[in-house]
Design a protein that fits this description.
heterodimer, A: about 240 residues, mainly alpha, two-stranded antiparallel sheet, B: mainly alpha
């Protein structure tokens, strides 16, 4: 070994050691990445990964600007020649999809997309899948749980799933009004499913909420009357 | 007696504040953040998210720009204007010069982004828009990203001109963000172990600026764990150590 090659070897060793430190500290950071970044529980498609990578640090802001456009389509629907502009409706869903790629915690985008897919575009299966993705990325969101429950109740007639979602929503409610809305949903879904006892139980839970006891009593009477009417009809 | 590193760091800060670019960037950044606080075309809830997103993006962009301006005009600028001869004729080591420039740069960046962070925290506090502490954590992570960027730029500046330094630093920065797309693409096109190892090497050895991006958590009022801050600080220290070592070694070898 020459005198010239010795410092080079020392430098190469130092660089290798520093690279090892970089790799080791990246390995230390990795377990927490899922917690702090918007990757928690999110399975991105390749296209989504590419879009997210290209936008890097500005993807949150990009999602906000796209939401501005969605907001305009939703609230200020343009009229041309006396007719609502159909292209606005068609442009909405790709924008919503892109927003959820860029910011999977953008709950409003999931809520709006799910609602439009089911009630406007008549694609309840896709709406349920979209809500499911939203709930996976935002497990503690009230609106997504109630939205998904509505789709399962009114469109897919999966009453067991709808009840479970509405029940979860009641547990996630921020205030009494939201708790009432969720339990209202539970009661109505159970009534549709023919579960009168379950519906009455849900209304009793409504009665526990301060200020809602009157509404609960009225509804329990109505449910009982409706059940008796149904029983009489069946007997005849 | 003051250490040469401290003297050079102070000189770097003085030099940066003397240029008009930095105060102009800070003023412009603060102006955008303040004005965005009064935009109200979103419904409640989304509005504060929009404000936080704008504020963090402005801090990120102006901080990055300030880092590039300061670093590329420091070492390479002094070599190009030949003022480096005066500096090197003094009793200081070359590595002290590089490290001093680095310390001065990151201190200047901290001072430059501080008013923008203060405005962000003020509006979060007054609008009840979530935790101000989490916002400070997010800003600290951005500052860590700037320190790593400064080290990368100084490493390049020790052998390149100011224009090349700025261009290559931006390239490293962009490649760091595209790394996710590249590794996903590699996974997609081939299941060969060599390709997988290459993807892993790319992931672990190249700087990963995504590590410093905690904005989504902060914007959505989620907690950034202290352990994450500690580990990311270690990661930044490892990268800074690597690039400053490369920079000082290359600068030592350079002939003037």
């Amino acid at each position: 070994m020459t005198a010239r090659s010795l410092p080079r070897l020392r430098r190469a060793t130092a660089v290798a050691a520093l690279l090892a430190c970089v790799a080791a500290s990246q390995a230390l950071v990795d377990p927490y990445r899922l917690v702090v970044n918007d990757e928690a529980g999110v399975q991105f498609s390749v296209a989504a990964v590419v879009v997210r990578s290209f936008l890097g640090e500005v993807r949150g802001l990009a999602a906000d600007f796209l939401w501005l456009r969605v907001d305009e389509y939703q609230h200020r629907r343009r009229i041309v020649g006396g007719e609502l502009l159909q292209s606005d409706d068609e442009a909405l869903m790709p924008l919503v999809r892109l927003i959820t790629w860029l910011d999977p915690h953008f709950v409003d985008a999931y809520a709006l997309g799910g609602q439009w897919l089911a009630f406007h575009f008549n694609h309840p299966q896709q709406a349920a899948a979209f809500y499911e993705e939203g709930i996976r990325n935002n497990p503690n969101d009230f609106d997504l749980h109630t939205g998904a429950a509505w789709v399962d109740w009114r469109w897919l007639h999966d009453y067991a799933r709808a009840t479970a979602l509405a029940h979860d929503a009641a547990g996630l409610a921020d205030d009494d009004l939201q708790r009432f809305q969720a339990l209202w949903l539970v009661a109505h879904i159970r009534m549709t499913a023919g579960d009168t006892a379950g519906a009455i139980q849900a209304w009793r839970a409504v009665g526990q909420i301060p200020g809602y006891d009157g509404a609960a009593t009225t509804w329990i009477a109505r449910v009982r009357a409706q059940a008796q009417g149904t029983a009489r009809g069946t007997a005849r | 007696m003051t250490s040469p590193i401290v003297v050079i760091a102070q000189q770097t800060m003085r030099e940066a504040s003397r240029r008009r670019t930095l105060p102009a960037l800070v003023l412009f950044g603060c102006g955008i953040i303040v004005s965005s606080a009064f935009l109200s075309f979103f419904q409640l809830g989304v509005e504060i998210k929009f404000f936080k997103d704008i504020a963090f993006t402005v801090i990120f962009m102006f901080g990055t720009l300030a880092t590039l301006v300061i670093v590329s005009t420091q070492l390479s600028g002094e070599i190009e204007s030949r003022t480096i001869y005066n500096v090197l004729s003094k009793p200081i080591q070359r590595w002290e010069l590089v490290v001093g420039k680095f310390v001065g740069t990151i201190a200047t960046i901290a001072l430059a982004v501080a008013p923008m962070v203060a405005i962000l925290v003020f509006f979060i506090y007054t609008d009840h828009g979530g935790s101000a502490l989490e916002a400070v954590k997010g800003a600290y992570m951005l500052w860590l990203a700037f320190t790593v960027l400064s080290a990368v730029a100084l490493g390049i500046a020790s052998v390149a001109t100011s224009t090349v330094t700025a261009a290559l630093t931006v390239l490293v920065f962009v490649v760091s963000y595209l790394k996710g797309a590249v590794t996903t693409y590699l996974d997609l096109i081939s299941a060969h172990p060599v390709v997988a190892y290459f993807g892993q090497a790319l992931y672990y050895l190249l700087p990963n600026f995504e590590n410093f991006n905690t904005r989504t958590a902060v914007v959505h009022d989620e907690l950034v764990p202290w352990a994450y801050l500690g580990r990311t600080t270690l990661y930044a220290a490892a990268l800074i150590g690597l690039f400053l070592y490369l920079g000082t070694q290359l600068f030592e070898e350079r002939e003037f």
